[in-house]
Design a protein that fits this description.
The chain is of the alpha/beta class. The protein is built from 9 helices and 6 strands, in the order αααβαβααββαββαα. The protein folds into 2 domains: 56 residues; 203 residues, Response regulator (Rossmann fold, 3-Layer(aba) Sandwich), CATH 3.40.50.2300. 46% of the residues lie in helices and 11% in strands. It has a 6-stranded mixed β-sheet, covered by helices on one side. β1, α4 and β2 form a beta-alpha-beta unit. α3 runs parallel beside α4. The longest helix has 37 residues. The radius of gyration is 36 Å and the shape is elongated.
Length: 272
């Protein structure tokens, strides 16, 4: 009986509430607020997830930019020739009457870049083509590869020393093949007297310390801060695309362009 009365009372209360306009308005308002709150939470979560994806996951495809005219193949060859010419002029200025040894790939393995560099070096030296003061020494010929890149990928100190040994009385050695993969084993370094060593087409990022210590007298490398929308018509302007790094300016250039010697730069950052 009591249970029946309770049910009846509850039913009556529900009926009264449902007939109450104020209750209905409050009830609807609460439902709307709950829906708005739930929707806001969902939208906020979606925004946070989208922001996370944009910052940490999404990698936009860069808008392709047209290659500048500078990088046409023929112009690259001219640019390489200009670098060789700049280095040759430096050597001629330092040793007007001295003999110079130019280390090159063997002719069958010499590509267009090597040939242009060699041509530029000889033009910068301003010697007669048959001058006895210029010695073109092929290096790496014992390897039978068709491409210069293959010939010199494994160039070692022994091959370098073997090529230079007959010319230790020369004023300078210009290497257009860079250094061996194990330069610390070169017998060339401690020899006194020895020719000055000039490099082009070398991995400059690992040479800063050797330059400062006087092991390398000069390195020609592409200027990291020079660019052009069009290729210069004047060949002399091409030399502005090159840096000649010497013991005298290596510290200044390291401060100005720390990524030139990126290995040393990273070592310094790790120490800090």
């Amino acid at each position: 009986m009591r249970a029946s009365n309770k049910k009846a009372n509850s039913a009556e209360q529900r009926r009264l509430r449902s007939e109450s306009p104020a209750w209905q308005r409050e009830w609807r308002r609460m439902r709307i607020m709950k829906a708005v709150f739930t929707t806001s939470i969902v939208i906020l979560a979606a925004v946070i997830l989208l922001a996370f994806w944009l910052v940490w996951v999404y990698e936009p495809t860069p808008t392709p930019r047209p290659e500048p005219e500078l990088w046409d193949w023929e112009e690259i060859i001219k640019l390489q020739e200009a670098g060789g010419r700049a280095l040759g002029e430096l050597v001629r200025e330092r040793h007007p009457e001295g003999s110079v040894v130019v280390l090159t790939p063997p002719e069958p393995a010499r590509d267009d870049i090597d040939s242009a560099t060699l041509e530029g070096v000889l033009a910068g030296l301003k010697y007669e083509q048959d001058s006895e003061l210029v010695i073109i020494q092929e290096i790496g010929g014992e390897q039978k590869n068709e491409k210069a890149a293959d010939v010199f990928f494994g160039l070692d100190a022994e091959s370098f020393d073997k090529a230079v040994e007959p010319h230790m009385e020369a004023a300078a050695v210009i290497s257009i093949v860079g250094l061996p993969t194990n330069p610390e084993k070169m017998r060339f370094w401690p020899r006194r007297p020895r020719p000055e060593l000039m490099l082009i087409n070398a991995e400059i990022f690992r040479l800063g310390r050797i330059i400062r210590q006087g092991g390398i007298e000069a390195v020609a490398t592409r200027h990291p801060a020079v660019s052009a929308d069009s290729f210069p018509e004047d060949p002399d302007e091409l030399k502005e695309f090159w840096l000649i790094i010497t013991e005298d300016n290596v510290e200044e250039l390291k401060e100005r362009h720390p990524n030139l010697f990126v290995r040393e730069h990273l070592d310094q950052l790790n120490k800090e």
